Amino acid sequence: MFFYNGNLHDSSTIELSIADPALLYGATVFTTLRVYEQSLDSPLTAWQAHCRRLKSSLEPFQWPEPDWERVREGAELMMASWPVLRISIFPDGRELIIGRILPQELAIRQEVGVKAWVAGDSLFRRSLPTHKTGNYLSAWLALQAAQRQGCQEAILIDGQGNWLETSTGNLWGWREGRWWTPPIEVGILPGVMRSQLINCLNTQDHPAILEPWTAEVVSGFEALAYSNSVVEVIPLAEVFSENQTRLYPSSHKGFSQLRQIFLG
């Protein structure tokens, strides 16, 4: 089942022109959200924030906006069957909404964490990194490479070796009694969950430190995690690279600050 161009389709295949830029170049922008409380208007679902994310790419790309009422209608139809929705917008304003279930073993990963691999090859650097486009090949390749090495996530880096983000989310590190996360200016995706967590930390009077993650900064972290709108916050219990393996606790006291947002 999927919602495409104003209609609900009971199928697992879609028909596109062989000249469609979405097919040829990955020319779409998308956002992935998790529906909380069976409502698009739940603060945790962050519907408006996800729409703003799409608009923030449509404007600089000079693509027309979709029919937002129709996009919401499609999302409401799809969320009756799926807790996770991916909303894609085409260069001509068409919308495609597909659904999926929550990841398997999500609760276990939230509790015990996952293993990550530092993807050092320039092959894994995303194009247009501050936009979530359909051309997500480099991040997907990084994740595949990580999985071949027994890891569940990949950490992307820049040309100087600074850590940027994971293949599916934003990075968080605890040091000096605070959470740190790389700033948008270094070339990362401005995740919706990242923004929600930053706001939550501000309300707790524990503002996050937004600084580039140089080797010196990374060496001082006591705990690590990554976030996105589907998995929420996942500890990084082990980070593997060519030179070393770092171990981190999955039950660090700092996680309670990040997870405060989910407690209402």
UniProtKB/TrEMBL annotation:
Q: Which Pfam families match?
A: Aminotran_4
Q: Does the keyword Ubl conjugation apply?
A: no
**Keyword annotations:** Aminotransferase, Transferase
The molecular function terms of the Gene Ontology recorded here are: transaminase activity
> Would the keyword Cytoplasm turn up in this protein's UniProt record?
no
Q: Give the family, as the similarity comment puts it.
A: Belongs to the class-IV pyridoxal-phosphate-dependent aminotransferase family.
Q: What is this protein called?
A: Aminotransferase class IV
Species this chain originates from: Laspinema palackyanum D2a
